[in-house]
Write a structure and sequence with these properties.
This protein has about 140 residues and is an all-alpha fold. The chain is about 75% helix and about 0% strand. Helix 2 runs antiparallel to helix 3. The two termini are about 25 Å apart.
């Protein structure tokens, strides 16, 4: 289906993007943390049994527990990163809902009243002249 859709366009022309719907990574990471916690609990119980029997396998079990604790810390870090990403998304979305036109109007009006609007416009025009033009492909 995707190749058929791509065939509808001229060669070298890109007019659509391919997006996928994926699950929440935070949920997946939380499930992995739960799984690691279960493994740690199981190994802790095994460690207690080995301590009672004075076995030589204590070091092996302790090192596996340490490895799982390290894995858990890494997963928690990934959850924190995902939570930060969602906080940024929420902030960005709140900005998209705001109407900045009254603010811009008041800003331009205040600049005009102070006499700094005309010099700012001239300066912007001069910058635009000195900036190299970007080539836009014909659509």
């Amino acid at each position: 289906v995707i190749q058929q859709r791509m065939g509808e366009y001229k060669e070298g022309e890109i007019r659509f993007n391919l997006m996928a719907v994926i699950g929440d990574r935070r949920k997946m990471l939380s499930e992995q943390i739960t799984s690691v916690d279960r493994d740690i609990s199981r190994l802790m119980a095994e460690l207690e049994k080995l301590r009672l029997g004075e076995s030589k396998d204590l070091g092996d079990v302790e090192s596996r527990i340490a490895g799982l604790n390290s894995e858990r810390a890494g997963l928690e870090h990934l959850v924190d990163l995902e939570n930060g990403k969602f906080a940024r998304y929420q902030f960005d979305n709140s900005l998209r809902k705001l109407n900045f036109i009254p603010f811009i109007y008041q800003l331009v009006r205040a600049m005009a009243e102070k006499g700094v609007l005309e010099p700012a416009v001239e300066k912007a025009k001069e910058k635009a002249k000195n900036r190299p033009r970007q080539q836009r492909p014909d659509m």
